[in-house]
């Protein structure tokens, strides 16, 4: 369970803009446990395939499986951010150049 919370705080800390939308991370009917739901793809896969080891200083070591899943998640997030930036840039260019405006007619 401790690993679940560490994973949750890692994702919330590094990717809060991805997790939170309209100022909340869950539906109104759900609790914050939603982020720890083992049915969720990232969390469920990591916990199901977890090979965690405790160190002498009580830190948790994750294996390559866990790191691979986190890397896949991070790559997916980066791709989505790039796409979003590209679309925003395209929209700004449209607005700047007046493309799509109907008020550019000369009389």
Automatic annotation (TrEMBL):
<feature type="region of interest" description="Disordered">
    <location>
        <begin position="79"/>
        <end position="107"/>
    </location>
</feature>
<feature type="compositionally biased region" description="Basic residues">
    <location>
        <begin position="79"/>
        <end position="98"/>
    </location>
</feature>
<protein>
    <submittedName>
        <fullName>Uncharacterized protein</fullName>
    </submittedName>
</protein>
């Amino acid at each position: 369970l401790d690993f679940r919370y560490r994973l949750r705080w890692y994702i919330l800390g590094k990717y809060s803009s991805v997790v939170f939308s309209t100022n909340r991370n869950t539906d109104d009917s759900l609790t914050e446990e939603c982020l720890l739901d083992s049915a969720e793809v990232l969390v469920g896969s990591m916990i199901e395939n977890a090979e965690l080891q405790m160190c002498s200083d009580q830190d948790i070591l994750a294996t390559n499986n866990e790191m691979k899943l986190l890397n896949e998640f991070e790559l997916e997030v980066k791709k989505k951010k790039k796409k979003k930036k590209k679309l925003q840039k395209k929209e700004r260019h449209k607005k700047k150049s007046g493309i799509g405006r109907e008020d550019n007619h000369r009389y």
